[in-house]
């Protein structure tokens, strides 16, 4: 079902009702696209010991094994999904994909994860390895610290027993099934 307006300023409430209904009917498309982007990370290596899909799977595996809830596990899986598009701003891309589907503290942990992870490598680039200290008073600080230190920065091991994308697929589908905000 489609509408006929050619400019939003001449649309009607009924037409927006159709668009809303169609959008929700097609919500499963979001999980499909997220899974597609994750799969594309298999082609992104950029000098690391594992491809970025494996890195994301290892990060999510570690989060799940640590008892993280499903929102955090899926965010851990998707934290580098932006690298499928652009490495320099990948945290923001991932955070914006996740924003309508997970709680705010999870979004913020992903948005700033590179500043937290910098403790482990920024010194190699003559950058401040203590950027995370700028966020010390934030309510999501502990989550971001755990994510960066225990799960993300340790997940470049070709021999680590890593769960498959199929393992995480039900959680991805559940999290992306319905947005809590637009």
Quickly list its features.
182 residues; Hypothetical protein af1432; 9 helices
List the helices and strands and how they pair.
Blueprint: H1 13-25, H2 28-40, H3 52-65, H4 70-78, H5 90-98, H6 104-111, H7 113-117, H8 141-152, H9 165-175
Would you write up a description of this structure?
The protein has helices spanning 13-25, 28-40, 52-65, 70-78, 90-98, 104-111, 113-117, 141-152, 165-175. The chain is mainly alpha-helical. The protein has one domain: Hypothetical protein af1432, CATH 1.10.3210.10. Helix 5 (90-98) packs antiparallel against helix 6. The longest helix has 14 residues, at 52-65. The protein is globular.
CATH architecture: Orthogonal Bundle
The separation of the N and C termini measures 22 Å
Order of helices and strands: HHHHHHHHH
CATH topology, by name, is Hypothetical protein af1432
Tell me the number of strands: 0
Counting structural domains, the number is: 1
> Roughly what is the average pLDDT, rounded to an integer?
96
> In the CATH hierarchy, what is the class?
Mainly Alpha
SS summary, helix count: 9
Q: Helix share of residues?
A: 40-55%
Q: Profile the largest sheet.
A: none
Summing up helix and strand content along with how strands pair, one would put the structural category as mainly alpha
**Unreliable sequence segments:** none
* Residue fraction in strands: under 5%
Gyration radius, rounded: 18 Å
Envelope shape? globular
Tell me the name of the CATH homologous superfamily: Hypothetical protein af1432
């Amino acid at each position: 079902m489609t509408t006929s307006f050619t400019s939003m300023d001449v649309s009607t409430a009924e037409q927006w009702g159709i668009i809303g209904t169609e959008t929700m009917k097609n919500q499963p498309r979001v999980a499909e696209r997220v899974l597609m982007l994750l799969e594309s990370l298999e082609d992104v290596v950029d000098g690391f010991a594992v491809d970025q899909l494996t890195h994301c799977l290892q990060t999510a595996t570690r989060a799940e094994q640590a008892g993280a809830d499903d929102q955090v596990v899926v965010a851990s899986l998707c934290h580098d999904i932006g690298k499928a598009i652009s490495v320099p701003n990948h945290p923001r891309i991932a955070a914006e994909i996740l924003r309508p589907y997970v709680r705010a503290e999870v979004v913020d942990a992903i948005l700033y994860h590179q500043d937290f992870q910098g403790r482990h490598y920024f010194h190699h680039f003559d950058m401040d390895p203590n950027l995370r200290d700028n966020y010390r008073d934030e309510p999501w600080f502990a989550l971001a610290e755990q994510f960066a230190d225990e799960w993300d920065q340790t997940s470049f091991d070709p021999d680590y027993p890593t769960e498959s994308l199929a393992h995480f697929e039900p959680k991805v589908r559940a999290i992306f099934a319905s947005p809590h905000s637009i």
